[in-house]
Amino acid sequence: MSHVPTPKRERTGKRRTGRWILLALAVLVIAGAGTGYWLYSGIDGNIKGVDINRAIGDDRPEKLPTSGQNVLILGSDSRAGANAKLDGALVSGARSDTALVMHIPEGRKKAVAISIPRDTLVTRPKCTKADGTEVASARRVMFNSIYSQVGPACVVKTVEQISGVRMDHYVEVDFAGFKDLVDAIGGVTITVDQDIHDSSSGLNITKGTHKLNGTQSLQFVRTRHGIGDGSDLGRIGLQQQFLIALLAEIQKQDLLGSPVKAYKIADKLTAALTTDSDLASLTKLAEFGRSLNGVNPSTMETIMLPVAYDRVDPNRVVAAEPQASTLWKAIRTDSTIPESAKKSPATGGS
Question: Cβ neighbours of residue 111 under 8 Å, at least 6 residues apart?
């Protein structure tokens, strides 16, 4: 992977794309393949549910005219409990570190995942908090602030407003749960073509092949210094590399032949999950997983929402037009995404 030096742009927070795509897909794959092993006492109660439909009401886009599905996947970091031990607990409060829209087209053959950079400035619609308090609409709000300020239902509503795409489901994965998943499958093997020493993430590995445990895997996907321009956008190459490696490891797992392993992985995954109320049980999750049996995770396309550096604040980005509108239109109509709609002016120097 080559990188062209560019002026460094400081960015707060961390983009974590690949691991959340993989976690959501892993949940669905395991649900479809190992349903029988999930029916152990206690696991079903691990999953937390949010009634998105009730929270948002009728102010939503129409459902797809086809059988295609759209799932909003959110990676959250509460910095509480187990999360407090990660990254030195330098940040407090609940945050959403990564959000992406996974589009599963009609025919269920090839999924597309569209990541929304956390530093994207958006217009937040009027929302209602879980306690019933109304929050007014606001312009030029950083996307990742919506989760902590208003809650997950408002994140769903915001994505629907900026895209015009109806979210059929919501899946939230807790930050610390990712670490436990990697440890549950025995680690992930990756190969890097350069030494990486990042004091911010804590990653210290040499050029070559390594099997990373859960903590090291978190460090790997969080690393940005020395990659591209050091911004959150610049780390996407490492995240995509890790996604492929983690997929390969999961595909090696003999879930049907090993009830103990299936149970262990299912327990770690469900403990880290919050979903919309329509998916908040093992039965419902398994049914949805079985409906996706035709999707091959290894062929999934990952796209970053095309963004450009904001003219007022170059440390933030805004949706690039006409690329973003073209991309969302393709999702709304369940049609092929033009190559021109995948190009982002802000690349992070990668």
Answer: 25, 102, 103, 104, 105, 292, 295, 297, 300, 301
